[in-house]
């Protein structure tokens, strides 16, 4: 009898554990009172294949269940709920009844913190620092490996394995960033990437509502946001709508047959943006561009599926509210369904009017790039995306300016020509300009480790129109070529205990590195207080003999920038620029405090940008 009793007890325990394991999971896990977006759709997942037949009720004043959507996969339900304006914070109880079994799930309604500063937007007054958490600094070695996750790699000698950097590492170095002149931090995605390998970059999300525990989890991400805001700094989140990781729960167990874009055999995107706006384009090229998979390990989600669209839009809103996000960088923007993107952008802007949105538009040609943002074209499709990552100013602008010999259409003329096409944009000041990023060869390597050219690039970055973004380590001359991309994602020296050199300190940097750091710091901190650069206008002059002159100005300040791309000093006659110099007689060189007479000939050193605040 004792044995029989023990066996029955064991079975009872197993059954109880099974029931607990089947407790439905709700996405999003909570919402807030007082949101404009107060009609939401909960995606509910259970391990029970019969779960979709459940009778559902919600018990809470001010919360109404308006529709139960029974999806093809019996493990899922989609619940449409309305939250009344007078609803108060608390736990809404959702009951799922199937036969004699009733399961209860609490759905918290949280109060909005009206005193918290967030969703401020990132503007041309800011200076963005892009960092990969896994490669910046390891602040907590205890989370380097998490038991049960598929990727157990930890090898700093490999460019493709995890290295252990985390959000605590960022928090530990906020003093460094603030001293440098940084106002905003943009991190590559921090959400869970429970993939077997290559999880260091973060772009293969497997759970939208969970910050990767190897980064420190939800609580530490909130702490980073709070610490930034205490310093009057800002946070940009990297959004990935186009695809997810192969091991995402809704890829491994799809709610509907059309949750993903799937083909008779594996079909990769063609990576070609032109079919999306080409009036001569073939429909098959358009479909392959938008619906093809980014890689075999990143399935393309079907944003035409209304449940998918609701899931992604609600997650965007939830993230801003939950983590106090100020700006939204949208990965692989051009590969998304563009009508869906307009809808998603509008939902964010309706809820958070000041938030900034900028999409990754790695395309070729100003007109093609302008198609994906607010533009001046009279065309059938009109994007509502406020800003973008300005690849044209990078690929066909500053890169040619510093590396290509001067000619009628070459060298710095390409930078001038690219910016001359700004008339196609509704507001080019909302575009993010940059020298490099996590997918591109580092700028210091692109200029063949020429410090003068590197400083020219930094000077342009911090004085041109738009929002400047700098990739981590650029300020200390980190280098690397992007094929393969792991070489541009190396660890910041000094971010790990025992590193041979600590580039976070003056003592740990060599002479050249300190020169680059101080140059960046001087310009970035001048920029913080420069109304002309932050909000003023820009006037540029046609380059002559490899010299390009442009002004940033408003009613309070005028800044003159003279870029000499030649390998020799050049003399400049200020009279040519009298339209903007006007009655100014002197200019203070921002990087040296030296005073220059702008009524006489100016001599600009070779490969140098002379930045003058006119007096």
What features would you describe in this structure?
- By secondary structure, the chain is α/β, with parallel strands linked by helices.
- The chain folds into 3 domains: 24-110, Sandwich (Immunoglobulin-like); 128-496, Glycosidases (TIM Barrel); 534-614, Golgi alpha-mannosidase II (Immunoglobulin-like), CATH 2.60.40.
- The chain is 27% helix and 21% strand.
- It contains 17 helices and 26 strands.
- Strands 16-15-14-13-10-9-18-17 form an 8-stranded parallel beta sheet.
- Strand 14 (327-330), helix 9 (338-351) and strand 15 form a beta-alpha-beta unit.
In short:
The chain has 615 residues and is α/β, with parallel strands linked by helices. The chain is built from 17 helices and 26 strands.
Secondary-structure blueprint:
Elements: H1 2-21, E1 25-27, E2 31-32, E3 39-45, E4 55-59, E5 63-70, E6 76-83, E7 90-98, E8 101-110, E9 128-131, H2 133-136, H3 167-172, H4 174-180, E10 184-187, E11 191-192, E12 207-211, H5 217-230, E13 234-239, H6 249-252, H7 283-291, H8 306-323, E14 327-330, H9 338-351, E15 356-360, H10 366-370, E16 387-389, H11 391-403, H12 412-420, E17 432-434, H13 443-446, H14 451-461, E18 467-471, H15 511-528, H16 531-535, E19 537-540, E20 547-553, E21 558-564, E22 570-572, H17 578-581, E23 586-589, E24 595-597, E25 602-604, E26 608-614
Parallel strand pairs: 2-8, 9-10, 9-18, 10-13, 13-14, 14-15, 15-16, 17-18
Antiparallel strand pairs: 1-3, 3-6, 4-7, 5-6, 7-8, 11-12, 19-20, 20-21, 21-26, 22-25, 23-24, 23-26
């Amino acid at each position: 009898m004792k044995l029989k009793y023990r066996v029955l007890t064991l079975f009872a325990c197993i059954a109880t554990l099974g029931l607990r394991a089947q407790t439905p999971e709700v996405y999003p896990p909570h919402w807030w009172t007082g949101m404009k977006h107060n009609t939401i759709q909960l995606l509910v997942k259970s391990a029970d294949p019969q779960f979709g037949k459940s009778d559902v009720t919600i018990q809470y004043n001010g919360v109404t269940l308006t529709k139960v959507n029974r999806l093809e996969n019996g493990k899922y339900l989609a619940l449409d709920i309305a939250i009344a304006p007078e609803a108060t914070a608390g736990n809404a109880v959702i009951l799922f009844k199937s036969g004699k079994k009733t399961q209860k799930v609490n759905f918290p309604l949280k109060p909005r913190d009206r005193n918290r500063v967030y969703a401020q937007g990132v503007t041309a007054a800011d200076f963005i620092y892009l960092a990969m958490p896994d490669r910046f600094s390891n602040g907590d070695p205890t989370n380097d490996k998490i038991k049960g996750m598929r990727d157990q790699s930890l090898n700093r000698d490999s460019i493709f394995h995890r290295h252990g950097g985390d959000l605590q590492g960022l928090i530990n170095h906020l003093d460094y960033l603030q001293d440098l002149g940084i106002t905003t931090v943009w991190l590559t995605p921090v959400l869970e990437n429970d993939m077997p390998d290559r999880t260091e970059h973060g772009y293969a999300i497997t759970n939208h509502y969970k910050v990767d525990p190897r980064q420190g989890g939800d609580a530490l991400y909130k702490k980073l946001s709070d610490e930034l805001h205490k310093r009057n700094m800002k946070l940009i989140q990297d959004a990935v709508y186009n695809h997810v990781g192969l091991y995402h729960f809704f890829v491994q167990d799809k709610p509907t047959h059309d949750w993903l874009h799937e083909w008779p055999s594996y079909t990769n995107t063609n990576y070609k943006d032109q079919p999306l706006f080409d009036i001569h384009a073939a429909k098959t090229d358009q479909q392959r561009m938008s619906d093809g998979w980014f890689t075999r390990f990143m399935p393309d989600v079907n944003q035409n599926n209304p449940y998918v669209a609701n899931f992604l839009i609600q997650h965007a809103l939830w993230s801003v509210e939950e983590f106090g996000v100020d700006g939204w960088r949208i990965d692989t923007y051009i590969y998304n369904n563009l009508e869906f993107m307009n809808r998603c952008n509008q939902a964010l802007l309706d809820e958070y009017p000041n938030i900034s949105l900028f999409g990754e538009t790695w395309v070729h040609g100003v007109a093609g790039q302008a198609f994906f943002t607010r533009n001046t074209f009279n065309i059938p499709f009109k994007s509502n995306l406020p800003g973008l990552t300005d690849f044209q100013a990078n690929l066909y602008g500053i890169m040619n300016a510093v590396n290509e010999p001067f000619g009628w259409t070459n060298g710095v003329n390409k930078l001038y020509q690219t910016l001359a096409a700004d008339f196609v944009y509704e507001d080019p000041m909302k575009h993010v300009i940059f020298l490099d990023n996590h997918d591109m060869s580092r700028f210091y390597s692109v200029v063949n480790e020429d410090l003068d050219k590197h400083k020219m690039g930094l000077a342009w970055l911090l004085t041109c129109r738009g929002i400047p973004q700098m990739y981590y380590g650029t300020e200390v001359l980190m280098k690397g070529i992007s094929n393969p991309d792991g070489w541009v994602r190396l660890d910041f020296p000094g971010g790990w205990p025992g590193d041979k050199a600590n580039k976070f300190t003056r003592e740990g940097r060599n002479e050249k590195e300190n020169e680059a750091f101080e140059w960046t710091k001087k310009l970035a901190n001048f920029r913080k207080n420069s109304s002309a650069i932050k909000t003023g206008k820009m006037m540029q002059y046609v380059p002559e003999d490899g010299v390009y002159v442009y002004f940033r100005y408003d009613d309070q300040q005028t800044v003159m920038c003279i870029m000499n791309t030649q390998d020799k000093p050049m003399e400049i006659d200020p009279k040519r620029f009298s339209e903007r110099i006007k009655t100014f007689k002197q200019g203070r060189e921002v990087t040296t405090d030296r005073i220059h007479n702008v009524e006489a000939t100016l001599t600009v050193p070779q490969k140098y940008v002379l930045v003058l605040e006119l007096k």
